[in-house]
Design a protein that fits this description.
The structure holds 2 protein chains of 2 kinds. Chain A is α+β, with helices and mostly antiparallel strands. Chain A has helices at 42-50, 57-67, 74-87, and strands at residues 12-14, 19-23, 28-33, 36-40, 91-93. In chain A, the strands form 2 sheets. Chain A has a 3-stranded antiparallel beta sheet. Chain A has a two-stranded antiparallel sheet with strand order 1-5. By secondary structure, chain B is α/β, with parallel strands linked by helices. Chain B is built from 17 helices and 9 strands. In chain B, helix 1 links the parallel strand 1 (20-24) and strand 2. The chains are: A alpha+beta, B alpha/beta. The structure holds iron/sulfur cluster (2 copies).
Amino acid sequence: MSNTSVNPADIYGLARHYRFQWEEAQQCYVLLYPEGMVKLNGGAGEVIKRADGSKTVAEVVQQIEAAFPGVPDLQSDVMAMFELAVEKSWLEKRN
Amino acid sequence: MNQVANNGVAAFQTHTQPLWLLAEVTYRCPLHCAFCYNPTDYDKHTQNELTTEQWLQVLRDARKMGALQLGISGGEPLLRDDIEDLVAEAGQLGYYSNLITSGVGLTEKRIAEFKRGGLDHIQLSMHDITKEINNFITDTNTFALKHKVAAMIKGHGYPMVLNVVIHRYNIGHIKEILEMAEDLGADYVELANTQYYGWSLVNRSQLMPTKEQIDHAEKVTNEFRAKIGKKMQIYFVVPDYFSDRPKKCMNGWGEVFMIVTAEGTVLPCHSARVLPNMTFPDVKEHGLEWAWKDSPAFNKYRGDSWMKEPCRTCPEKEKDLGGCRCQAFLLSGDAESADPVCTLSPNHHIIEKAIEDAKNPQLQSQPIVFRTDKNSKRIIGGELKDRVEEFHALP
Ligand code: SF4
Ligand code: SF4
């Protein structure tokens, strides 16, 4: 049950003790943490990669829109990804 | 500390790539835990450990094959003085690495070196809030040391991951154990109900709690979890004897986990050596790649083509893949049968009997056979027959 609400002005960074890296063998981004790991599909990886504690959610949306021109509904996809990542404790709010 | 840390991991079907490498670098251990999963004949495996150079090669090869989580375990891995070298290599290679330890042998000097080398976390085993039970169940005087080590781990900025094996002697203290974990600043706590392999199987009637105790422990855990929120992640590993369906053991045979033992045997799970008519590959002879992809042992129970009824036509077979092969063999003598934990298994009565036996005061009062070199030699030599004869693979 999600009661997290992500705002465009929020700044998120990777949660403490998490590691995010590109895996050549799997051809995907992964999140690694004590007791587990998650493989991220393309879109999720692009979001987490940019959530580096320096940009607001709105800036991440802009960057992704710029990187993938012409893809519809990016804003809502990115917001949904942030919500999921916060709910799962992958990302932490920094502001 | 020999515990599987696969909780919270989504099951990925790779068929071609191992994701987790568990390096059981030694079977020597200063502790003598009554619930140890190590083989009861471990004394045979304490010679001929792989050299540092051989371990480094294992790390490189597994990483090339796709492994990214590394557990350094044992026995007590810190009994080797080259863990620093392994950690540094793992850091270079980009593993997410974990040292699984009882804490014995961890010093300021060593932990600083691990930090420099890039070790990502340390999983410490804790046993109870009382000194008496800690010292009883491990058959050592290690209570104070564990608290000291916990502080050291925290002090070096590591995530604090506590693993607590749950059994009859500490199951009544779950709330207090969780409070202790909170006081120690734990980030993750794994409450691992004892699974019955190796020494814990020999001591099953002495260790197994009742269903009521487990239900209560789970309730207490849920209450604590609700109170503490995200500050501390708590995993409660449900004991399979008390469920209707078996666990999907190791997320599937040869799917994601690869274990290399102290002498270089490559295994798909901790206790696979108990299985009959199987030759597990030796990393020194065949290398990891062949072991994982081509060895008959790794292919034997991949997928579901090996299954018999009731599993073969069971609509749930993809969920649990018929459970644990080792448990099926140890309890029923048939490695290809359904895990007796399953209520659909024709051998399910074995589990029911074990649960009844654990309530039998006469069996309960038998002495615990602690994991010691001496007891291992006795079991290898055919002693302690009355304690091992119902389990098919234990000598
Ligand atoms: S005796 Fe205890 S500490 Fe040593 S390997 Fe077994 S469970 Fe781990
Ligand atoms: S019958 Fe076999 S496959 Fe079906 S649920 Fe039981 S163990 Fe799993």
